[in-house]
Design a protein that fits this description.
Oligomer: single chain
Radius of gyration: 13 Å
Distance between the termini: 39 Å
Shape: globular
Structural class: mainly beta
Number of strands: 11
Strand content: over 45%
Largest sheet: 7 strands, mixed
Helix content: under 10%
Order of helices and strands: EEEEEEEEEEE
């Protein structure tokens, strides 16, 4: 059974860099045809796609976040990482890690709440 677990600080100060890790179990992040996405949901808002990294390491980011976002992976630890720089209170959200195959978001992490506040 594939499981995704997000982890990171629950509270970040404005202007700092947010770092989140998605630890994957029950499957390899390098398995062909999978993409690993980051999506967030701010209070009262819909889901916002942030970016993804493919099984071969290819990366795509949301144009609205492109100057601030960095997605990477550690194949030895079977983890994907999200970094978001220069955060503001508008970055307060629940952040999700998701596995996609063939345009289907198959597996979701439980999400991790991140609040940006001084």
């Amino acid at each position: 059974q594939v499981q995704l677990q997000e982890s990171g600080p629950g509270l970040v100060k404005p202007s700092q860099t947010l770092s989140l890790t998605c630890t994957v179990s029950g499957g390899s992040i390098t398995t062909n045809s999978f993409y690993w996405h980051w999506i967030r949901q701010s209070p009262g808002e819909g889901l916002e796609w942030m970016g993804c990294i493919g099984s071969s390491g290819d990366i795509a980011n949301s144009p609205s976040l492109k100057s601030r976002i960095s997605i990477s992976r550690d194949t030895f630890k079977n983890q994907c990482t999200l970094q978001l720089s220069s955060v503001t209170p508008e970055d307060t959200a629940v952040y999700y890690c998701i596995r996609e195959r063939g345009a289907l978001f198959e597996y979701w992490g439980q999400g991790t709440q991140v609040s940006v506040s001084s």
